[in-house]
Design a protein that fits this description.
Blueprint: E1 14-19, E2 25-30, E3 32-36, E4 41-44, E5 48-49, H1 65-74, H2 86-90, H3 96-118, H4 132-140, H5 151-157, H6 164-180, E6 190-192, E7 198-204, H7 206-212, E8 249-251, E9 256-259, H8 274-288, E10 291-292, E11 295-296, E12 298-303, H9 304-307, E13 319-323, E14 326-329, H10 331-334, E15 343-345, E16 352-353, E17 366-368, H11 382-389
Parallel strand pairs: 7-14
Antiparallel strand pairs: 1-2, 2-5, 3-4, 6-17, 7-15, 7-16, 8-9, 9-13, 10-11, 12-13
Helix pairs in contact: 3-6, 4-6
Length: 405
């Protein structure tokens, strides 16, 4: 497939086929941006499924033909769950210009699909999710936070992106205005987010804290090793050699801490019941006392039974850490690694976050073109409200309540 692409420009979608056998081919696609000509340097998006030819065992949409219909009516579009190039910029494989173009291209494309569906007028409930404000907040928060480690250098280097975060909210605002122009007086419009944002200045290594306080034991004291995602699939499990015979707790994921429970964990040593409850409370109190530069690091720590319930509660972490603004679980800690430093400056362009920040500090937003008497709502109230509007009985097991009821 040949395309002529100018310097600094994006290609159309390239079709890429992977022959799995004589009878089976998998069809992917990717876009290319020319970074420089000599020596040649290209940015190629991750290969993703071609919506026109999705394998029968893969669901890009439900019903499965919907993905193909969108492509036929609007042209090819990203099918990745997270298509924006945030990781490429975070890892500094691309520059600000490439990311900004990618962010804008995806928003414009997704917006075109939304308005195409909106104008069909053959729907009763239409839901569309837009990610640009989220992705921009992760990346561009550093331009608005004087306490961020990259603030001074990045503002001087990229002055034209100081307002990039505001611009993404203007895109969203203009889209809401245009949407309202299509609605009648009987139509109800919800605009909401499931979280807010906070600055991400400092990385906190939870496993390091557990190690320093005697809850996690290692076979080696060499803490210089850095882990990659691929390491999680190695038989050894956590990157460093953990001495499970002496380990009472460990952390993996976004602020999750698990007790090394006997009967649940393969080499568990903590007895379920009173011993586990006392240990969880002890870890909770210790973490809440953590200070950094005279500031509290952790807003609260939640025990599993306080925030989770239902049939799958046994799979939930035993403790969930909610950080104060400015702090977040360290990248390496999410992979289960023990770092040589408890708290480190976040020097990446990924400078705003919500993951592991205490939810009380980063509430989402809710706008509606009608008033409800018992607002502000909880996120859990949205689903029962929609059911109520369609006069569909609300299941007893559903959390939340219908607004206005």
């Amino acid at each position: 497939e040949t395309q002529n692409i100018a310097l600094g420009q994006w290609s159309n979608w390239y079709s890429i086929s992977f022959r799995m056998s004589q009878a089976i081919q998998i069809h992917g696609m990717a876009q290319v941006r020319v970074i420089q000509v000599q020596p040649p340097e290209l940015y190629i998006t991750p290969v993703q499924f071609d919506p026109r030819q999705v394998p029968i065992n893969i669901e890009v949409s439900s019903p499965s033909d919907f993905a193909k219909d969108i492509a036929a009516e609007n042209g090819l579009y990203p099918t990745l769950g997270w298509p924006e190039a945030t990781n490429a910029l975070k890892d500094e494989e691309i520059d600000e210009d490439v990311f900004w173009e990618d962010l804008q291209n995806i928003f414009v494309q997704r917006q075109a699909i939304f308005f195409h569906e909106l104008q069909k007028q053959d729907w009763q409930l239409l839901i569309a999710i837009f990610y640009a404000t989220d992705r921009a907040s992760h990346i561009y928060w550093r331009f608005h936070d004087p306490e961020n480690p990259r603030y001074a250098a990045d503002r001087a280097q990229w002055p034209k992106y100081q307002d990039a975060l505001y611009k993404t909210y203007q895109w969203a605002d203009n889209m809401v205005g245009k949407t309202m122009s299509f609605l009648t007086d009987q139509d109800i419009l919800f605009v909401l987010s499931d979280h807010g944002f906070a600055p991400f200045r400092w990385e906190v290594n939870l496993n390091t804290w557990l190690y320093q306080n005697g809850y996690l034991a290692l076979q080696s004291t060499d803490l210089s090793q850095r882990q990659q995602i691929a390491d999680l699939y190695e038989p050894s499990g956590l990157g460093l050699k953990v001495d499970w015979s002496r380990t009472k707790a460990y952390s993996i994921g976004l602020g999750s801490i698990y007790l090394n429970l006997r009967g649940r964990d393969q080499q568990g040593i903590v007895e379920p019941g009173a011993e586990a409850t006392a240990l969880a409370q002890e870890i909770r109190q210790g973490l809440k006392a953590m200070m950094h530069q005279s500031n509290p690091v952790i807003y609260d720590v939640y025990l599993r039974d306080e925030i989770y319930h239902g049939d799958s509660i046994a799979e939930a972490p035993d403790l969930v850490v909610g950080f104060c603004k400015g702090y977040r679980v360290a990248w390496q800690s999410t992979l289960g690694t023990v770092s040589s430093h408890l708290i480190e400056p976040n020097t990446l362009k990924w400078s705003g976050d919500h993951c592991s920040v205490d939810p009380h500090l980063i509430p989402g937003v809710f706008f509606c073109n009608q008033k409800f008497p018992n607002s502000p709502p909880h996120l859990m109230d949205i689903a029962p409200t929609i059911l109520s509007l369609f006069q569909i009985p609300i299941p007893e097991t559903m959390e939340g309540k219908a607004l206005g009821k």
